[in-house]
């Protein structure tokens, strides 16, 4: 059952035939993903990119290769780079370092078998590939997501007057809605979720913007709760899907304040029902996210990122994602950033985890095999196509 | 190993003989359950009743059949309605719609093999079957649980004077204690758990009641924290078990404010030690509930509701329930409401999950088979019989 | 594959050979553990010591033998006491009661195959064995951990003047650092984690100490947040590892206020980066702990205690511990206290859980067997040796 150059279900016994076929060959929609690093990186930068938690140098007593993503890279990516599976870290690194970034992408992206990448083209410390480059290197199509905080920060940097900010932001959103298939907020990293979610009036927005503009700042950073509520409601008013970062990320984030249950005061507002709300990642709050996806017609979620970062343990996280939420409300994402290893491993682990979990349910008669295949397709592709219109 | 008309352990290999016998034939006590809908319902109402999260119409892009409970209904209930297991949703609905509600009950309730239903006869938007009807349709016995908030709301509706409320409520509780086997509070939905749990004096109760009575309200709804503390302490003083809704329910509930750890200030009070406190459902806080059942002699818990709503994933939730709490402190419930499918599937999934989890521990030598059978009987029946005296 | 007198992997099929050898024979470092009871105890005291949750007498309707640790004792310890595995509780108790405490220790401690016990010699209601006794009875070496709150309480009891407390405490810490391999704080039980973690100045410390000293108290108990911040920062300044109790313990603890995410304001401070911070136990917040161990170079964690208390369910908890954190950031501990059964069962369950979890990943090709053996050694021994210098 090869996907591209390898057998993605290798080592999994007793996956029934049609389910195995579906899990191995389904062309995915990766509904939240970033580009790959354009320039070569050194080994330190490589290991620091295994996860988003910290940008500190790796301490001398350890290597990030000794982690679930490290083991997954050595298992799944090594053969595509010309070294044996489970090759030692130094061998893996030597093989990787001998390839140009674009060559790496062309080896690792196509076997992910992603038909459509929905890309967050926002902030990156290093240059990353554009949607056009991603499409060329992967053989998939691409669409774009626009990050709300960045739009607002660009307006501040452009020196807009406080009284004009609200209209200008609405105009930017309207323009973006012409090209992008959705928006994204990182309010989790900024004010947190426990803010007043009533839509603020333009006068309040102007005052908040004036305070923000008056604060000295080398690099403007939107974190004011009034402005966060404003940009979120402005995006929701377009009816386009709004992606919301939920749960773990880097260590600047107060994880316990990104429990998606803290979004209830927003979700219960009638204005919030106008657009699909996509809860991203969610780990370790994926059970809470599933509850919200069950309780609100317009709420969806995924366990991207979590799947990549827990590697061989991803089967349990995937199983836990298949609890409360109706199957029409779940999606696939890798949230890969920078390293094409992450784009591939996200796909591999999701296919394997789904296949293994569903195969047991089929074997024990709880689910029919036809239903298992159908759910795989809904979560891996169809739901995203319906919600984003891609 | 048939229960009623079907093999409840079908598809589970390698359950040892005595454990399989116990899991398949044990007559359960369902210690928290509701009646079934008396009148025919249309398909929309049917699908909306798969869970309690929302009463919105099902959106056109999806069906609740594509969910864990939907798949479980098609697997376990379909053959009892005359269609094949895993029959398409439309076929399932057609078969179900052709039967009168009481016929459905008589097909689906007896195979649940419940010897005793402990019924919450409180609030329902649609008429539901009484304990007498449930007994007749299922072949089991029934007892009643009285909901505290409802008693208080009835007194308000009857126009009682604030100064007389405390005595009148105590009299109602005393009268109820003569018939009911326990009480239930839905403080989780009302004030939340993080209130002052000191028993309020009658003067404070009268003032709080006066404020409540003075508020205009079409449908009185007890939510005042002083009154909640009063009704809870009044019930506890009888020594009868008090059921407490914990964890997920409908979307009006602030899930994170129903973490049972927030009950610690109540549980530590000496007055709270006078009666068994039964933490219901608890998902996704069942590990926290197990901790409380370990830490307090009078605290018990179940994972009902969760088991039904996560379907094929229930084995993991059941395994997680078997962690900290001594086995004398756990119970079985379905929390089924309205649909007899839920009464049946709760029983089926619990039997299968327990059988599969315990079989592995027996196979690996961690537990003896005799202990596994004994724990099954404790949680499925004996603990409830001891606590409720049924 | 016997460890001491028994086959620790008995009943686990299909553990590959080298991994089985490593799991069965690895000499552990138990990086957080207490001594054993010196004097004989009665059955009530024995059962009350199965866990730390409560010191109430066991209620008459139950026995703590009917719990995961009770079943684990009857499985793993019974044969070492001369009764059959899974012997009835009364037989187990009779065999145990016929042996002197030191004889129990000499039967149960050596098969734990612990090479080095890092002992918290702090508070105990009953006399417990010293490091010297533990070493003699177990055949392992020992090191000591000093509890910060106890040091401060001793200074208060000695009648030190408030203005002299800060210097005196620093001197005590400096002296302790000469002998102990690390420190421990139980701030979780005292002020909780959500305090101001800025290092207080000596003047603020003197004022807080004066208030503490002025309060009447039979048994001084450090709980003041200023003093907690002071003792923690004083210990961190030595560079020695600081153990932090996290997650469940006894019922005096507000579990939800010991979520390790509440330590973020401490962990982000530059002063906190000067020493390894060891998050102990962590259940049910082990996923959050793993996130912190991923995000901060100097944060480590274990799932001790949890493993012992969930018995046969420990495999899942161990699997969950192998998610986010790099493998260099995890350790083994039993947190055994009083009963040598706990010292043994902690080791047995950890070896079995690791073997079973890793064997599946090896069988499915996710991990190499060599990596599995290496990670077992890192978590079971090497990481602790590096961090504590033992």
From TrEMBL, chains A, B, C:
Domain Amidohydrolase-related: 204-389
InterPro entries registered for this protein in UniProt: Amidohydro-rel (IPR006680), Metal_Hydrolase (IPR032466)
SUPFAM superfamilies assigned: Metallo-dependent hydrolases
One function term, GO molecular function aspect: hydrolase activity
Keyword Iron: no
Keywords: Hydrolase
Protein's name according to its UniProt entry: Amidohydrolase
Native organism: Microbacterium mangrovi
């Amino acid at each position: 059952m090869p996907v591209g150059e390898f057998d993605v279900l290798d080592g999994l016994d007793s996956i029934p035939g049609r389910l195995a076929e579906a899990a191995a060959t389904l062309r995915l929609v990766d509904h939240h993903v970033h580009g790959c690093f354009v320039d070569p990186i050194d080994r330190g930068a490589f290991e620091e990119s295994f996860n988003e938690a910290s940008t500190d140098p790796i301490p001398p007593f350890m290597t990030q290769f000794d982690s679930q993503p490290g083991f997954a890279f050595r298992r799944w990516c090594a053969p595509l780079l010309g070294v044996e599976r489970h090759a030692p870290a130094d061998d893996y690194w030597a093989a990787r370092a001998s390839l140009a970034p674009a060559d790496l992408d062309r080896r690792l992206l196509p076997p992910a078998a992603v038909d459509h990448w929905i890309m967050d083209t926002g902030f990156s410390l290093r240059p990353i590939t554009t949607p056009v480059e991603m499409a060329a290197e992967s053989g998939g199509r691409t669409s774009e997501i626009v990050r709300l905080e960045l739009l607002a920060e660009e307006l501040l940097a452009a020196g807009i007057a406080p009284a004009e900010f609200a209209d200008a932001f609405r105009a930017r959103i309207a323009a973006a809605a012409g090209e992008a298939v959705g928006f994204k907020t990182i309010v989790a990293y900024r004010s947190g979720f426990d803010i007043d979610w009533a839509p603020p009036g333009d006068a309040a927005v102007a005052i908040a913007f004036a305070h923000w503009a008056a604060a000295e700042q080398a690099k403007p950073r939107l974190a004011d709760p009034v402005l966060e509520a404003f940009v979120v409601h402005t995006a929701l008013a377009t009816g386009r899907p709004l992606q919301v970062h939920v749960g773990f990320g880097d260590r600047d984030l107060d994880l316990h304040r990104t429990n998606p249950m803290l979004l209830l005061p927003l979700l219960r507002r009638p204005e919030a029902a106008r657009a699909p709300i996509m809860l991203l990642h969610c780990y370790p709050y994926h059970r809470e996210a599933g509850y919200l996806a069950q309780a609100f017609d317009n709420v969806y979620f995924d366990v991207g990122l979590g799947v990549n970062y827990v590697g061989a343990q991803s089967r349990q996280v995937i199983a836990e994602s298949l609890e409360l939420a109706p199957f029409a409300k779940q999606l696939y994402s890798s949230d890969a950033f920078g390293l094409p290893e992450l784009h591939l491993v996200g796909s591999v682990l999701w296919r394997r985890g789904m296949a293994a979990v569903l195969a047991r349910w089929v074997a024990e008669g709880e689910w029919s095999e036809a239903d298992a295949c159908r759910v795989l397709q809904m979560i891996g592709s169809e739901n995203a196509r319906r919600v984003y219109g891609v």
